[in-house]
Amino acid sequence: MDKLKITGGFPLHGEVEISGAKNAALPILIASILSSDQVDISNVPKLKDIDTTIRLLEFLGVSIDHSDGNVSLIANNISKTEAPYDLVKTMRASILVLGPLLSRFGRAHVSLPGGCSIGARPVDLHIQALEKMGANISIHNGYIDASTEHLSNKKLIGTKIFMDQVSVTGTENIMMAATLADGKTFIENAAREPEVEDLGNLLISMGAKIKGLGTDVIEIEGVAALNGSQYKVMFDRIEAGTYMAAAVVSGGEVKLKNVDPRKMESVIEKIKQTGADVIETSTGITIKKQHQPIKPVNIRTGVYPLFPTDMQAQFMAINVLADGPSEITETIFENRFMHVQELVRMGASIDVKGNTSFVKGVQAIDGANVMATDLRASASLVIAGLAAKGETIIERIYHLDRGYERIEEKLNKLGAKVERLN
Ligand code: UD1
């Protein structure tokens, strides 16, 4: 299993290209199931989760050509409507095939998902919504079995769906299913995340009728069929935020390219509160961190546009080295503080009570052997390693490879010292 060796203490200088967003690319690739025409997607990041998605789509019968961030997909010969456990266990987002398979083919047999071990993460909202649209759904042997064969023309029926809790993939699954349903679907208390909007814009480019993207009520009027399209995936705002956090703890000056700062205001605001200078343009962000101490920042995660849970661990690494105490409250997922123990092994001072971490702030931390436990927890260990004295070895970095494209190459180009050990 690969490990990362990080030698801390080098300031970061230069430019870094931010990749396409994992969380937008996954549903966008999966949306190709909805049409029998060719869909060409560009700016697709090179990541383990993307490979898993492509393998899953190929298993279903989608013909796929991919090279260098461009993926062409044709779903004109779907041979299976099943997503087996072996393919989906490593990636929770594979639940996203449920809506498209059901709405285009009238059947779906999808394994309950795995993914990051950050709490229970049920899929009840996805299932309830599809049932409300008329599907028959049962769960047995770890599989969701869904059918619309009893409905007229096997079509889901548009209806009003109120989401009890804001769910990103839940909103995406229902939105995709609704594009081919009979009549209008209203998703109330819908997720407003930019990645949901990106998927919605792809669907519109395929001929879907969708209104209200980026608001908490999305209206979808079903159409008979969707056509092919060409579409570019948006930038990864979590990858961008992670490099900003790395610049805060390492010092230096880093320019992020291919980003739209308007889609990450809550993170930029908190980065500024740490004492770093942030200069925003329409296509980039420059972050400058001088030698003054890092100011601690209190964080409370929330649904977009509030502070993203996927940036919480990275800000913990910042606060660990800040000049004073801070509190980090996680409101989206239970059990998302697994990085705390590892940071403490490096010399951090953190107490966890319920869903809040109390961080004291220390002058320095030491390199250590640490274990990556989930995707964003791994990123916090990388950030801590960049600032630590001496060497940090991070084990189980397959978590990191699920979500960060060429991370050691990008960091080394900025002047860090990061080595992948096989
Ligand atoms: C997505 C992101 C993930 C991010 C998360 C929150 C993708 C591929 N993943 O995950 O990176 O951390 O949004 O921004 O886009 N819930 C239920 N029942 C459901 C669905 C969700 O109770 O049926 C709960 C979850 O347990 C969680 C909350 O709702 O407490 C939000 O989860 P959700 O937005 O669905 O997260 P994901 O879409 O899985």
UniProtKB/TrEMBL annotation:
Q: Where is this gene product found?
A: Cytoplasm
PTM 2-(S-cysteinyl)pyruvic acid O-phosphothioketal: list the residues. 116
User: For binding phosphoenolpyruvate, which residues are annotated in this chain's numbering?
Assistant: 22-23
GO MF annotations, alphabetized: UDP-N-acetylglucosamine 1-carboxyvinyltransferase activity
This protein's pathway: Cell wall biogenesis; peptidoglycan biosynthesis
Domain of life per record: Bacteria
User: Where do the annotations place UDP-N-acetyl-alpha-D-glucosamine binding?
Assistant: 92, 121-125, 310, 332
Top-rank EC class of the record's enzyme: transferase
Q: Main role?
A: Cell wall formation. Adds enolpyruvyl to UDP-N-acetylglucosamine.
Q: Name the family the entry cites.
A: Belongs to the EPSP synthase family. MurA subfamily.
Protein name per UniProt = UDP-N-acetylglucosamine 1-carboxyvinyltransferase
State the gene name recorded for this protein: murA
